[in-house]
Design goal:
Structural class: mainly alpha
Largest sheet: none
CATH class: Mainly Alpha
Oligomer: single chain
Helix content: over 70%
Radius of gyration: 17 Å
Strand content: under 5%
Number of helices: 3
């Protein structure tokens, strides 16, 4: 049995559903970052698989840029997370609903 495009798209769909469930259920900011990474990586799998299927490098280039953007998003987000934890002592999203100056 050969692994084809449909297998990769099913894997991408399953990972996207897992990431979406993580974003919806979010209780912790760190887990929200992980769920966002799962979402972005599922899209990368789909882009790379479709790109390979059509013999075009455009999807792989999009995946490369998504990886770069995701890395910068995590770097900035973790920096803000560390500042928030030092200031308030926890990273629960329930406490972040009331932002005070």
């Amino acid at each position: 049995m050969e692994i084809g495009l449909n297998h990769y798209l099913v894997l991408s769909t399953i990972l996207f559903a897992i990431g979406l469930a993580g974003v919806i259920k979010r209780k912790n900011l760190l887990l929200l970052f992980f769920a966002t990474e799962i979402l972005l990586n599922s899209v990368n799998i789909a882009f790379a698989a479709i790109s390979h299927y059509y013999g075009d490098l455009t999807g792989q280039m999009f995946a490369f840029f998504i990886i770069a953007i995701a890395a910068s998003e995590v770097a900035v987000g973790l920096g803000l997370l560390i500042v928030w934890y030092k200031r308030h002592g926890n990273i629960d999203l329930e406490t972040m609903k009331s932002m005070r100056g």
